[in-house]
């Protein structure tokens, strides 16, 4: 096994062998041996975000490495599944391969390929619905980012008719929730304020869905824009030998507006 582990160019078989070696109860790495599904799951989520981050930044020189890190997470879970007799990498790959074939009857079946991308999405969702059992909202992963999970829950409910028909109705609900939070904040407990804030964010996610906007992507973009503009404030102050703590809000607002103007002029 060590020969394949240390030989470049081995591809996926090499990676699988490395993981088996790391998890060997007698000769493996103590840290890797101690891990289980629950302890590795946060790393899996983190690596998926790092892939998304590299794509968001057009960091194509980093993407290959980030995808490798994400693949390692799948290999890790697959190895633990193999050790417990539940599944292994090959059964995982075969299962998702069969799913792709089943969900593309217009490629590997009798269905016509002459349909729009929108119709293909609708067919995909219909196929997923047939595979699900239980309640409408079952299976929406608890570990998803909260905004993304809100949209998925809303989409599921919308498929059975539980949805506003007009975007204006969502806007009305948004105003209502915002007003309730502002008007009642002095009389509410901390937990009640948190609940009202959650209601407001949930409606914001619904508004994004009605507008065809990915709220996670929109917020990532807003975060990046805020960081760029605040760093422009820091740079301007640093040129004068000062820090933001040595400035005030009025000055920093003016520098913020200047950063916005420079962006528009480019």
Automatic annotation (TrEMBL):
Entry's EC annotation: 3.6.1.8
One MF term in the entry's GO annotations: ATP diphosphatase activity
Keywords: Hydrolase
Pfam entry (one): MazG
Domain of life: Bacteria
InterPro entries: MazG-like_dom, NTP-PPase_MazG-like_C, NTP-PPase_MazG-like_N, NTP_PyrPHydrolase_MazG, PRib-ATP_PPHydrolase-like
Catalytic activity line of the entry: ATP + H2O = AMP + diphosphate + H(+)
UniProt domain NTP pyrophosphohydrolase MazG-like: residue ranges: 35-108
Listed GO biological process terms: dATP catabolic process; dGTP catabolic process; dTTP catabolic process; dUTP catabolic process; response to stress; TTP catabolic process; UTP catabolic process
UniProt family annotation: Belongs to the nucleoside triphosphate pyrophosphohydrolase family.
Name listed for the protein in its UniProt record: Nucleoside triphosphate pyrophosphohydrolase
Organism: Jannaschia seosinensis
Gene this protein is translated from: mazG
């Amino acid at each position: 096994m060590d020969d394949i582990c240390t030989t470049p160019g081995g591809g996926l078989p090499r990676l699988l062998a490395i993981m088996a070696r790391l998890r060997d109860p007698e000769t493996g790495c103590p840290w890797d041996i101690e891990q289980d599904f629950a302890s590795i799951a946060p790393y899996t989520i983190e690596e998926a975000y790092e892939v998304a981050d590299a794509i968001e930044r057009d960091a194509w020189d980093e993407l290959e490495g980030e995808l490798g890190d994400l693949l390692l997470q799948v290999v890790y879970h697959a190895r633990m599944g193999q050790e417990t007799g539940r599944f292994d990498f090959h059964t995982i790959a075969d299962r998702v391969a069969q799913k792709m074939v089943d969900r593309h009857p217009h490629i590997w079946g009798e269905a016509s390929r002459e349909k729009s991308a929108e119709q293909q999405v609708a067919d995909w969702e219909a196929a997923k619905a047939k595979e699900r059992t239980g309640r409408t909202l079952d299976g929406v992963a608890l570990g998803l980012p909260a905004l993304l999970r809100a949209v998925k829950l809303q989409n599921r409910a919308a498929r059975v008719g539980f949805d506003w028909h007009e975007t204006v109705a969502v806007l009305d609900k948004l105003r209502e929730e915002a007003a309730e939070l502002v008007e009642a904040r002095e009389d509410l407990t901390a937990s009640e304020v948190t609940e009202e804030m959650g209601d407001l964010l949930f409606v914001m996610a619904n508004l994004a869905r009605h507008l065809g906007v990915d709220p996670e992507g929109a917020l990532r973009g807003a975060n990046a824009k805020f960081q760029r503009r605040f760093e422009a404030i820091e740079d301007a102050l640093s040129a004068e030998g000062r820090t933001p703590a040595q400035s005030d809000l009025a000055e920093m607002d003016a520098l913020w507006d200047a950063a916005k103007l420079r962006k528009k002029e480019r």
